[in-house]
Amino acid sequence: MGEPSATIANHIPPSLQGRGDVRVFARSTRRRLWADGAARWVVGAGGGCVIASILGILVFLVVEVLPLFTAARVEPARSIPLTGGAPGALLVDEHRTHAVVLGLDGVVRIWRLADGAMVVERSLLPEAGELVEVRASAADSRLLAATDDGRLLLVPIVFAIGFRGDQRFVTPQIGEPVALSLDPAGSPLRAFTARASEKISTVAAQLADGRLLLQRRTREENLLTGEVNESEERRELVSPVPARELLLDEDQRNLYAIGEDGRLLWWRLSAAASEKPVLLSYGPAPFTAAALLIGNRSLVAGRADGTLDVWSQVLGEDGAIAPDHIRSFPSQGAPILRITPSERNRSFLVQDAGGGLGLYHSTSGRTLWRSKSPVAAASPAAYAPKGDAALLADEEQLVELAIYNPHPESALSTFFGKIRYEGYEEAAWVWQSTGATDDFESKLSLTPLLFGTLKATVYSLVLAVPLAVLAAIYTAQFMRPRLQKVVKPTIEIMASLPSVVLGFLAALWLAPRLEGAFPSLLLILFAVPVVSILSGTAWNRLPLRVRGRLPGGAEIGWYGATLAVTLAVCLQLNGPVEAWLFGGNFPAWLRNTTGLPYEQRNAIVVGIAMGFAVIPIIFAISEDALSSVPKDLVAGSLALGADRWQTVVRVVLPTASPGIFSATMVGFGRAIGETMIVLMATGNTPIMDWNLFNGFRTLSANIAVEIPEAPVGSTLYRTLFVAAILLFAVTFVINTVAELVRQRLRTRYARL
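Request: output the structure for the sequence above.
Response:
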């Protein structure tokens, strides 16, 4: 208690020493000290809560993003014993309740995975005959079997789903086989493939005598009469070598084959196409296996040296579509024997001759997982339709592998690097998260969004910084105090304008008018600075006796009048200037002369709208910094003979430069995080181009557009959180650098 009492005693004025008011004064002083301590505690606690809140937001963002970079897991889930000989083809339903096994003995067996019981057993060969090869088509849930007498059996498998109360049950059913005979002579089939849709079905097969036959059936229905016309086409394709494996895409327009000599061949199946194949060669090792990925626009081919190549249909320079090599995977260490693609995404399972098993993803180019296979290397495999499991089978057992691979396309290279996507002629930065079909290849590059954010910020600051800083200089150093009390609050009130209102006006009012009056904008950019200088010169040339009779602030009225006249004249000259310089139509002239399109909602519109949103912030902070310069510095400079402008440039601006720099950085942060203006006033096109006349998409606008449609926990959903972290990081780095520079400037000019 002694120390507080001594402190209080030190605050007692001499006039109160020895009087009865000392106790009252001490009580009041003690109350103030407690109030000061409580205020310091409240302010400190509030600051700590703010820091904790920011850290909490950052932790939440990191937690949402981390699953994108977790490794895939593939683990054995269960194993059931098999009977009945070697399996040749496998199918599994989407709920992983039953597995369909077809062996070379011609018997289809369906096993219930829960208890390993065989629930269905049916032979496909009631009469004499043997199967020479079997395959499974997971895309349309169908088994294909070739007989030794040249027939091709198409066996549909149906997994009927029913419910008993809240419990779901699946009933597998084997449809009636459809027998197709490609060769009337009954030659055995060496390799085959088939595709079917509502209107067209196509079968391609390599016969034992080396012929490659194509049979296509077309079904057309007259919508008026209901009459159905069916036609059949048979063709023989030229094959330089016998085919070991045939692949037909879903559109039935392209046929691929791996020859016995390891060459990869491609036929275009249009009516006007040549019947000769195109040789696809890339690297020295022969091809040993191939598979079409979901969407059938990409082909994965494995080689004898264990490497994997991805080919995609690309539009060539001659206007024709042809396969082009887009990427390679490192060697798996042994010849590739089998490739099993996923029907959910562009992942695929690879088996090699060394007993290895690998999981890969085409778009990201990642090796997701590799290990030893639990069954024989050449065993058939099936990828579950939901992409969460795979089945492998040999003569003794059926093994189910649980696959945890929710985000195979996510990687730093996917988010920030150039990727060669399907159908693209070269690698590019692309953001296109969704498409019209389920087999769409997501493109999740954040680079165009980051570029758009910087583009919007730069163009808005080009307008905002000069106007705001110059206005602050004039208001703080040249304007009369009576006008300052009106101008400064008015400009600061502009900061309260909702950004959605500015975006609305920019999109629906400014953009269409700017499109029709762009030549006037060019005139304004040239005329306003010139007229400003001339009007200021004319005002200074007025005799002092004339200016002295005018009311204070008359120079603002003079400047405002000249500016209004200048703007009106520029707008009136829009038509003649456009006709004289741009042939009467500026957008058409721009497109025909430079090849650049003029988008109505472009970077100029955003720069003007965001500039008006940022100007009040930069102005207010800059004006406060300029007004805080000690008056004795200004007075000393004027006393030494410097005029007002020299004082401002050489004394006031250097002293206030830390505050002006801080104002610019605050405006930068305001612009980089703006959402509604860039969302409404741009075309939201994620392109990378500094062109003034097209749109862009920013990180913040992209989050606002995509997050309502992104499924919770999906790759897109978590990628948007990556964009949020990127925005957070950019803002943090900019503010940190700004503070360091401000402190350096403050130290440098503190001696003035």
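The longest strand covers residues 151-164.
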